[in-house]
## 1
Amino acid sequence: MATQRAATPQPALDEAYAYCRRLAKSHYENFTVGSLLLPRRLRPYFFAIYAFCRWTDDLGDEAEGDRLALLDDWDAEVGQAFGGRPTHPIAVALQDTARRFDVPQALFGKLIEANRMDQGSGRFPTYAGLLHYCDHSANPVGRMVLYLLGDRREESHRLSDATCTALQLANFWQDVRRDYAIGRIYLPLEDMERFGYSEAELAAGVVNANFRALMGFEVDRAEALFKEGYALVERLPGRFKLDVALFTKGGLSVLAAIRRQGYDVLTERPVVSGRRKAWLAASTAARMALRRAP
């Protein structure tokens, strides 16, 4: 294995970063790297973080063959970025980024582990188990961003965890029907039992009083996390305040859309209109500008 690795040419650092940039630009997700507010000096490092996240998720969600084996191989390659000679361009860029900003290896390992979890039953017996999953699949990304911003304060990281978990939960509650179609139920089984709603009813698309009560309960939980995490906005450098505020406002708008539909996320997927998104961006930016005004 060592001989094979040594024989594999390592891409130049500028080539590795260019690869990450192309990968990030080829996807449409609302990740911070796409923000026009991002300082030019930080963009290569955000691209590297994004490329790692995208590549890892693609291995867990879309790769053909033995995904667990592929994730193990990727984990080993990322390990080389923290104590060896990586050869994949993403890992080469990651090695430089992690060294510059002292990003812990454990954060990258958590995201890989989340994708291993995705190969399981697709069920979460408890809410605690779902939070454990979010702590691996969502929270590491927010913490990586804070490291790039030079914020290592534990309270900032705790608030980031609340926001990232809330964003993931809002996405889960928006996509209950879509997730079930690919074999996943993110609604905790203990909550389904508590509200008297079965998987058989979910499979049949039944929307009854029990389902609405269940979804109301889960939406309230996500909203509470958004409110808890919003204090992070005031702890960030100026231009990043708007990004986090918009992520939070967008997530709360998804929860509001679910409420407007009477918690029926099975008949129609709740969405936030383009006009509503534009209004949120404009109003949030205006409020922040007024706050900064003398």
## 2
Amino acid sequence: MTKRAAAFAIPGDITTVTGGYIYERRLLEELRALGHDVAHLQLGASFPDPTPADMAHAVEALQALDPARALILDGLVYGSIDPDGLAGVTAPIVAMIHHPLALETGLSPSRRAHLFETERTNLVLAAHVLVPSSHTAHILRTEYEVPSEKITIARPGTEQPTAGRAPSDPPLILSVGIQHPRKGHDVLLRALAALTDLDWRAVIVGSVHDAAHAADLARLQADLGLRGRVDLAGRIPQAQLEELYRQASLFALATRYEGYGMVFDEALARGLPIVSCATGAVPHTVPDGAGLLVPVDAPDDLARAVKRLLTDTDLRHRMGEVAAKAGAALPTWQQTAAIAGQVLDHLDGSGP
């Protein structure tokens, strides 16, 4: 079968260090490595709150695509682009939905309703939908009325570590996630503030998504007296992050929602027990026995879970072994791209 050519439309800088951008950059690279002719179409960075200029450019660029190419369209654009403009696209559309935009943290009711209706309307126009998890697939089926046969799960790939673990003393608690309210770093800080009688250090790695929220986190860190115990590291080089993974004794992320959560796979691949929240795709991503999940926005529960792993060495080791076994079985990026490539190759070109 001839490999289907495609255009992958992604807003802003493709090198942005978030799970969604990493997923799409690796998918683009691996589809090309498998022999697909995939063009990268950069759209305006303002999506999912597009400026008029970015909206106009996106509609014009997508409508100008050769219908012989499939269009893979990033979810930040897919859930917010004008439905009338998207309806004018003649290329068969593959929606890349990491998680529906209406599920983002901190939205007003009117904004949530607008995004929900826009995304649901636009999903009717998709020839197919790629999602990273069974959780997102379930939401699209049950809440957005997307037929099951139009949805394919392409779980993110994972790079296996090349170096062994070297846990530090005192134990290192590692958290990785952008400085965004949805990641719950404020909850983690409050939980850690209840554990200052124990011996540990913590590093929170992640780019600043919103300057005001980052400033709030820094103030909270100071108010809780954690500046000497917790490092709000921001974005760091990959080699430095790898070293932190080697040194860590456990991984903690107090997320309020995840459509998948690639950092959990990174932690599993490195044999780290996980403390997080039972929300979104997290219970499906973190295997039973590999971690402790608590309710969202529950710093006391989170503190108790972290304390269990810090103080019970046997439990920490058992959970680390379960994590390592699950991590070794995770798909590669080549396998993820092969699934997406099959979707492209089987499109009939006739649209939805």
## 3
Amino acid sequence: MAYTYKKYAESEEVKKAQEALARQESAKPAAYQSQWQSQLESTLEQILNRKTFQYDMNADALYNQYRDQYIRQGKLAMEDTMGVSAALTGGYGSSYAQQVGQQTYQGYLAGLNDKLPELYRLALSKYQQEGEDLLGRYDLLSKQESTDYGRFQDAYTAWQTERNYLADRYDTERETDYDRYTGDRAFDFDIWADAAKRASAQAEALLAVGVRPSDQLLQQADLASEYVNGILASLAAGAAAQLGSSTGGKAPAKKEASKTLAEQYAQLKAAGAPQRELDKLLNNAIGTTVAGQYISTRVATQIRDSRG
């Protein structure tokens, strides 16, 4: 019977390690999604595309406010001045009063122009402050983005570390389990090989003396029935040929000094011969017994019974 073995099957420890690894794999963090990226891009675009400072007093709300105020106050002052001049001249209007009133009005407008340097500096300061505010906003958003991404990296690293640990544990468990399996298989094969070797030796010894081994022994020795039948047929044919040549085709008469193998075996056994001598007699039966002796199935049975 040829050697057969069970295929490798993972142990419970290996299966548990594999399941733990699979659970960790399924818990992999999702790809990082920034909640600040759009604001960062928008702020950066404002910084990069910001126009160079240019002061336009007509577009300056503060300048327009001052202008309206100075015009209004200039008109009032002009009217007061003209009124005073008219009173001095007896209540009659004169070119002098108008001239004095116009000068007063222009004086107020000149005061508005004196405000322009101050208004320019205020507008420039505002422009610079807006730029600094944009830079500050971008820096704040960048820090928040870095904080969030750092947290994601920490979580991902922790997950990866645990995944690698579980993967190593699974590999170790499986390698150890498979080594144990191959070791057990090799041990079983050695036992089978030793048993098959002993069974083969026993079967060959029985065949050498014309005894057919049992089916169980043949199976253990992995000997095919065709092979066994061939050996027995060859021995029987050889024995028959020797009998025919020595007796001229007649059945031989038993001589007193000649004993069959069964008789020799029984005699030695009765005399207390060691088992190794009895086995040696059977193993060397061909060539040591009477030439041409044919061992029938009945005699072979008797030999086996006597050994028992």
